[in-house]
Amino acid sequence: MTAYAASPMTDRGPAGTMGRAVPGDDAWRDGRLLPSSPAPGYSGHRARYGPLPTPSLAALIAATSAVSLVGRGGAGFPVSRKLSALADAGRPPVLIVNWCEGDPTAVKDEALAHRSPHLVLDGVLALAGAARARRLIIACRAGSATAGRVGAAVAQRPEAGRCEVLSVPPRLVASEASSLVSLASGGGARPLGRLAPIWERGVDGAPTMVLNAETSAQLAVLAMLGPAGFATVGDPGEPGTAVLSVSGRVARPGTYEIPTGTAIGIPLLAAGAPGSGWALVGGLAGRWVEVERLGRTAFSGAALQAAGLSRGVGSIVVLGDGCLLVETAGILGYLARESAGRCGPCMFGLPAIAADLAALVAGDPAAPERLRRRLPVIDGRGGCAHPDGAVALAGSALAALSGPLRGHLDAHLRGGPCGARPVLSLGGS
Amino acid sequence: MARTATDLTLQWNPIDCRAFGLCAEELPEGIVLDEWGYPLLAAGPIPVRLLRRARAAAAACPVLALKLVARSRSAS
Q1: Domains defined along chain B, listed by start
Q2: Mean pLDDT of B15-43
């Protein structure tokens, strides 16, 4: 793992309403969430970052709203709105940290478990105090290195008795928010559907909030520095930092913490990515984009949206000399195998479009038409967003293949497989 | 002026649905089945003239995967 700080983060500015002076050491210099030298143990963490913040829920709502903090797990939902929903519910909520790293293109949950586990725990514990949470659940993949590190970190804390570490089956959809709610309520780790919002009725019927691990760490930093201190780095419209996972055909794969608004070319350069070709942005539910264009795009919600992209899980897979069609077909096969099998359009639709893409790799001239017919039929018709992400990825691939990569698609249609090997190695359960 | 649309809509639960397809037989104007037998619902409120058959479509589902709900209650 490599930490790459595109600009120093020592200028903390005045402490905000919640913030206070943080001990003057290296804590924020080389990365807020991913310091190059992890604090040794819990006492080392406290010595570096000061006492656990104790903000009120109203202060957290105001602070997350002031810095426009959005969730880092994929959906990009404003954190202040999730917190407001908890406040409106007026009952003790259940909080879940999603530390499962569901998407295979992301490694930031692992990096956070390795380098800043206590910062992640600080965020949810500060929130648990503010919201008077009835249960606090830390969800990790069963048997993963992250689960081991998180379990050890929890055991070091004085609040260990409050934290339940939940072991989640190693399947992609098992870490979907409502799947976690189901598992934490004693059911199976499968989606519950979108008809009953979990912020009204989640675990044990209580209002429930699921926070991605990075989101929880950002919340901790925000509670420590206050909005003004938090906003001393990054894009003014959406300040702070973000953790990117860069992988694929790059010399130095790993995690890169950057101030928001940084041109994506900078972490790509740090990772040793080639200057041309294509990249997948946002995870397996992401979009394809040409590396040249991506490099000029700033990493902020607004700039990504303007480029037709979204931050998703914050990952970038660089294709290099790989084939976008072969890669997409491989991903769709994985997403089809990873369906929870609850909803027909996903259970039958994803294998169908995976087969269509495999047929297209082999040169089937009727495959594009089948895909154009099937994709809109599947979109939005599952109980969770899993099929929607698969459809979006396939659509993005078709757009590239009928645009800039038209020549390569024609080569497949004339001669079948191009011989490129997949860049991502995806297992499947 | 007579109202042409109700404030009701059909809400489909894809997790419960088992593709029996009876809903589409009751309300072919508003429900078609995809290639795997799962319903695709027409968007928007149910017209007054179809309300009775929309109720029948919901009632026909053996697993109660289709419900008639007020539009404000429907999940986005």
Answers
A1: 8-73 (3.30.70.20)
A2: 96
Neighbours of A36 (CB within 10 A): 14
Nearest-CA neighbor of B45 among B1, B3, B9, B2?
B9
The interface predicted TM-score of the complex, written ipTM, equals 0.89
Is A348 an 8 Å CB contact of chain B? Answer: yes
In this structure, of A166-175, A228-237, B30-39, the range with the lowest mean pLDDT score is A166-175
* Domains in chain A: ranges and CATH: 41-230 (3.40.50.11540), 241-318 (3.10.20.600), 324-415 (1.20.1440.230)
* Smallest Cα distance from A377 to chain B, Å: 7
Which residues lie closer than 8 Å to A106 by C-beta, 6 or more apart? Answer: A245, A283, A313, A314, A315
Chain B nearest C-alpha distance from A404 (Å): 32
Please answer yes or no on whether B75 and A192 come within 8 Å at the CB atom: no
Share of chain A above pLDDT 90, in %: 82
Closest of A268, A288, A293 to residue A332, by C-alpha: A288
Q: Indicate if the pLDDT at residue A27 is higher than 50.
A: no
Select the residue of A194, A374, A381 nearest B75 (Cβ to Cβ): A194
What pLDDT is stored for residue A377 in this prediction?
95
Chain B: residue whose CA lies nearest to A379: B40
Best of B38, B69, B74 to mutate (most A CBs within 10 Å, chain A): B38
| Residue A349 near chain B (CB below 8 Å) | yes
Residue A372 sits at the chain B interface (C-beta within 8 Å): no
Cβ within 8 Å of residue B55, ≥6 positions away: B68
pLDDT tens digits for range B32-52: 999 999 999 998 899 999 999
pLDDT band at A365 (very low <50, low <70, confident <90, very high): very high
